[in-house]
Give the backbone structure.
Amino acid sequence: MHTRWMVPTLATMLIASACGSSGSESSSSADSDATIGVIGPKTGPAPQFYQDTQRGIELATPIIEERYGLELDFVYADDAGSPEGASRAVQKLLNEDDVDAIFGPPTSAPALQIAEVIARSQRPYLLVSASNADLVPTAGDKNFAFRTQWAGPVLNDVNSQVVFSDVDGKKPVVGIAYAADAFGQAAVAQYQELGKELGVEVVGESMQPGATDFTAGAKRLRDAGVNSVFFNFTSGSDIATVTRDMKVVGFDPPRKTTTSNVLANYRELSKPDEWEGLKFVEREDLNSPNFRKVLDAYRSAYGEEPQLPTVVYNVFSALDAYGQGLKAGGADREAVRDAIESAHTVEVEGSTYDTPFAPGDGEFYDADISKWHVMGFDDTPEGNIVTDGTVADCTTRGC
Amino acid sequence: MEIVVSGLAAGGLFALVAQGFVLTFLTTNTLNFALGEFMVVAAFLALAISSWGWLPSAGKIVFVIAVVGVLGAWTYRLIVLPFSSGHNDTRWLLSTVGLSFIIINMTTNGEGVLRQPLNYGGMDEVVEFLGVRLPSQQGLIAVTAVLVTIALVMVTRMTGLGTRMRAVSEDAEAASLMGISSKRIGMIAYGLAMSVVALAGVLWAAEVGVSPQLGEPLLVGAFAAGIIGGLTSLWGPLLGGGIYGLVTAAVGESAGVMWGEVSGLLIVLAVLMFRPEGLLGRRVDVKL
Amino acid sequence: MNTRFLGATKILARWSDVSPQRRDGLFVIALALVCFLALTPGLSGEGTSIPHMQLIGLMAAMVVAAVGLNLVSGFAGLISLGQGAMYAVGAYVFGYLSLKGELPTLLAVPITLIVCAVVGVVVALGTARLRGPQFTMITLVLAVLVHKVLVEWPELGAASGYPNTLQHQTGLLPEATVLGFSFVPPLFGGEFASVLVLVLVLTVVALVLYRNLSLSSWGRSLRAVGESDMLASHLGVHVFQRKVAALGITSALGGLGGIFYALLFAHLQPESFDVFFSITILLAVILGGSGTVIGPAVGAVIVVWLERSEVLDGVTELQRQYLSDQWYLSTPGIIGLILIAALFILPRGVVGTISDFAAKRTRRNLTQLTAPPLPTEPLSPSSFLAVNVDEAETRTLLEVAGATKHFGGLLAVNRVDLRVGPGSIHGVIGPNGAGKSSLANLVSGAYRPDSGSILLDGVDIAGRRPDQIARKGLARTFQTPQLFSSATALENVKAGFADTGQLSWWRAALKPRAQYRREVELERMATALLRRVGLLDEAYVLAGSLAYGKARALEIARALASQPKVLILDEPAAGLNSTEVMELGRLLTDLRADGLGMILVEHHMDLISTVADEVTCLAQGTVIAHGTASDVLSDESVMAVYLGAADSPPAESLTEGSQG
């Protein structure tokens, strides 16, 4: 009975789709200066990374094209947030689309899956979000990977100076609440190392991403006497769970620090009394006039705030670096790479960064604490971002 | 003491959701694997009607429960019944799994994965119970689980409908010979089960936010509560939820969250191996 | 269209002229051809062919995982949601052995397979006594557990993947090497991805072994288990052991799929092996045809193609264009929809539906078209019965003494005595609920007696398992015929041979020449048995479409296949018309002449009085009369229990016009 019409319908759908589909979206043009591939989770558990990367590209490209007199094409490939998806996406970009450069997956698992493949493909590899240290080789042969986001170890180097600084004149008891994923596990390993070096007690509590109960972990942190706690999660909603359950068990340490991942999906789910005193450490000052220019452009183009403002900013810096390289190197990808590596200055809406890269160093940001900022939220329900000062200030006057 | 209270309170949520399993298994010998996703549907529906100012919060919750209950009844009719033709037929497992994929996928594509707050149905305070601090919403859910169980037991013992449900659960064939349509009872059971689950979904979403992933992390715990207590006993979920909540909390406190969850799962395995009908379930021998 | 179909039919008919050995050989050749064709687009080694090679490799991995799962879920009816976990275990164990253990591939592969098999055996040992949904839930719990462990266990890289440069100084597993030759994975352009050859060779080997298993008596035993544990046990299968063995093999095949994954991608992330993945393997089995032989392989190819190709992306785009930009289904949702649709439209899967369709069109099923002609030489009927007729008088084949069984408070069988000698029919009668079937169940091993002894040809069988009793020479039929309804009559009879319980899996899989000879012998014997019960013309008819009387005859033929000394028949005449009853009676007397001892539980008094040499009457579990048929049937107490009060008008012997 159903059989009769279901089968031809399904068949028609399949045929029509096979004819009508193109797996990737591309703005194709035969005489562009470069085709750049972008891999990201268009579908999957963290599409905000894809969206803000794409929007950052849309906002930055006209600026870069005008600045250097170039024409850039972009090919987007969906990795669905999975390692196999990234594997398939990168093969397609490298072999079918023959891209000249690649923006890599924004989250660790897919990025790690294809790290080696990308390394051997010898094309400039731009990372604006993934922070795993393995992704940018630090020594040896010509490095093609350039990261305009902070690397995990660099971030932890800086924020540990805040987290490990004295509380009330004494060494703190440090706690770290972290996600049971690559980002979190790398952080806790680094923190425990540091703890050993500095002779500070470090207590780690993990939580599954997406879990909704952290009371046991919060209690253990409380009972261990933690007075300086660090939250290391990819998702703001996980940080919301943690701060809520800390309030429930009555764990309120004098110092609470986290990363800029708290900017997405945290304040909607929490209350001012949960983020009171919460600070996050970020390289850029989100309240600086130059950063605001980027945010304003985003707002007027898309009518909403970016979920991940730092990713949007990082796209600008990455494209500026690449633009310089392309201008100098042209069709020779290795020459492009060389030019990027030896760029004198990278500029984003007025902010300048001198010699960001060097041979063997593909990291844009270093751990100079005078350049990093400490920020928090005010006590209004919207939780507007307020800037406390640089990390250097913080450590000198006490955080 | 802290462990006991917080463990039991956490178990309350699992118990409430597990009733969704027990109600259906008792009467139809089937389960709805898409249980967690019905919670998601309820939560999103609650979110969608949150702007209906003319309806008070309690009314909105009733509306959501009613709608999802009807959806549950039709799920039985269309997705479960065709695939549960005999005691050997377990295709309903697969069809409900397929349904869960569809719902998660559609809500993820439609609303995105980011959690959205639900501004009613929840209490924000922290209460103290026997010297232990608890989110009051968690306490509310635990109390609800107990009340719902009592209500269900009363319905099955004292009403005509309840008698019919019990008849079908004992022997569907005999019941049908006596004029009780097991199809209709099945639909009612599923409707009731999904209503309970919808209530759990709204209450839980009020606490943690609405997202397509609302139900998934709870599924394992709800399953565990149902199996430990016994899928053929209405009191089972309370016992099972309590045990699972206690064990995961206790082990979680001492050895870490992962070991807590693993130990909970090990208890489920142990029950399945040594007392498969659950602690309160009744053993059924198949006559040759 | 009809002519094209006739053409296909002709090909199939010619297939039947080919000997089984040649057929198996042709199967291997066909597989090799398919594999070669699959590899051709990638022979140049160009980068653009990498996605294709990855696709082929993933298909091969899914194929072996799916056919493995079919053994347990399709044949034996135990739905497992844990095959993805075994795949993951295989991938990680192989990766670990290759990298950390530095074992050569030739060692790493078999060790991994053994580890996976052991895991499967351990799981089976804990779960084999469970019924369907509980088994499934345990496998689900295990899948969740394995996934959690993989995400958290630092030794295996945890969320950073295995291997990762931080811990292991490399991001990729070493290339597989066999005897110095390195197999290149499809990751970098410029070189032919030779690891695909290794993968496909192993796939072909696995498929050949799997097919041998499925078509053998061992495979038949799994189908019996899938039908019912009780039935399988009565056919001589040690059900527990069989389930354990099956789950071990299933797990090994799942692990093999994981090995392929590791060979293809050289890097493992735990996110790849979640519960969704386990479910797609099950979907592959169902979509292809759960319980068919080649169906799951077809299903696996389809599922991987759907997931990896851009077809589903196209479907998603269509939805967004024409239906709604916000509410649409993407790949996981469409797969869920396909799962439900497959359950509705293709309940027997793609392969099952095609084969049913062919059967309807040609009014013959595929087996009829592809079966070799039946052997025609007559087999002496008594050559396969175990009783030597000369010794007939002095032996007692079956001696039941004081058998007792309680069910809770109910006394079902109360100190019953019964004797059956060679070449005799012992009738057992009594009103409903008298304990006749319970007695039969006690003797056949379905129940354990609370007390009393049961001796089969001098051997104590009381309390033994049905398969042990079957091996000692007892067979039975059931009140409602328990046949494989979607198998032919011939297949059903073959299930009755001792091989079903006793053929080991490695002999079945490797299929040495002696196995081919044995299969021919089984075919001859089964044909002779069918002729014996008058079903020769129905040899290739599906058992589910047989008339009731023929179904019962088939059950008897199956029971005889095990060469029993004693045969228990549980109400064989129920539902038969008078002609059929007469034929049944003739068959029973023939069997008696061959020396078979039989217990005939019956209500049909005419039949009893015609064939029974002695009759025992039970009421409420107790023997109330025993003697010749005429004595018992005219006994007053017997009439009373059948007809009611003692002062009812004295009826003539019960044989007149009663239960006909």
Q: What stands out?
A: Confidence is low (pLDDT under 50) at residues 380-384, 656-660 of chain C. Chain C touches chain B through 47 residues (CB under 8 Å). The two ends of chain C are 50 Å apart (CA to CA).
